Amino acid sequence: MEEVSAWVVDIRKVSSEFFETMAAYLPSLLGAILIVVLGWFVARLLRAGTRRLGDTANRLLTRVASTGFLTSFQVSTGVVRIAASMVFWVTMLLFITAATRIAGLDAFSVWLDRIVVYVPHLVAGGVIILVGYLISLVIRDVVAAALASANIAQSNLIGALTQWAVLLAAVIIGVEQLGVDVTILVIIAATVIAGVLGAMALAFGLGARDLVANLVAAHHARRHLLPGQRIAWNGNDGEILEISATAIIIATEGGRTLIPARTFLTDAIVLTIPEDADG
Fold it and tell me: Quick one: which of 136, 141, 195, 191 has its CA closest to 169?
């Protein structure tokens, strides 16, 4: 009986200490829970406000400039939702960190403090990437419009490549703000850009080879041929009407004939003299 009585006393003592500890800790726990709940409401309000702000900005841009480069600053619904979600979770993180301090969860609080200190770098990187994305849209439209006005067929493709180049630079700068070593990214980006530019230069060089040959040949042809002269080439003959930038326009029996100027360099051309010019 004495052993049973000792057990009962020990159980009462442990129970009493447990309830005293819980009673002392309960205000901190309730305070932490209230902080989390309050943070949830605040985060929801900020998320809704961010979405409304994005939608309002898009509507304002639509009203102010329905056409033109300002329309490029319109943000898609997906980007607005991502930004709103980021605002929600950053706000929740701040309130949860405060709640862990109130609850006395020191180990968890220290870990969250490290994340909170890292948040400004994350936000700065995200803002840089977002701004770079918007700028890349404007540059794409400006480049494409300028090339289209110059009657360049691949204006949209060149504009898209310019956009991706600007966006890639923004991503590299944004990632660097996160403290990540971007040396490898810079090397990869430089390699990709150099490869694309090299391929474009090669394609342009191969495509413009005939054009350059005709331009050079027309320049030399103007030194030796004049409008009104008759020439013979490859069994054909006719009177020169005009020497354009890339071709020689000749009047033949079949009508006006346009021959590439490079023919002047590759084929034998004979200046003919009319029969009535003899003597």
Answer: 136
Report pLDDT for 45: 92
Residue 210 has pLDDT above 60, yes or no: yes
For residue 20, give the amino acid letter. E
On whether both 187 and 57 belong to a single domain, the answer is: yes
Mean pLDDT of 198-224: 74
Q: Compute the average pLDDT of residues 69-89.
A: 72
Whole-Å CA distances, 274 to 105, 204, 228, 244, 277:
109, 44, 11, 24, 5
Question: What is the structure's pLDDT at 78?
Answer: 73
Q: Are 193 and 134 members of one domain? A: yes
**CA dist., res. 91 & res. 99, Å (int):** 12
Q: What is the pLDDT of residues 137-151, one digit of tens each?
A: 888 878 777 777 766
Torsion 230-245-260-266 (CA) sign: positive
CA pair distance 23, 19, nearest whole angstrom? 6
Q: Which two tokens stand for residue 102?
A: 């109130």
Domain with 137 in it: 2-207
E-assigned strand segments in 122-254: 230-233, 236-243, 247-252
Q: CA-to-CA distance for 203 and 254, rounded, in angstroms?
A: 37
Phi and psi dihedrals of 233, rounded to 5? -155, 135
- The pLDDT mean for the chain works out to 75
pTM score above 0.70: no
Q: Which run of H or of E encompasses 63?
A: helix 2-64
Cβ-count burial 128-141 (b if 16+ within 10 Å, e if not): bbbebbbbbbbbbb
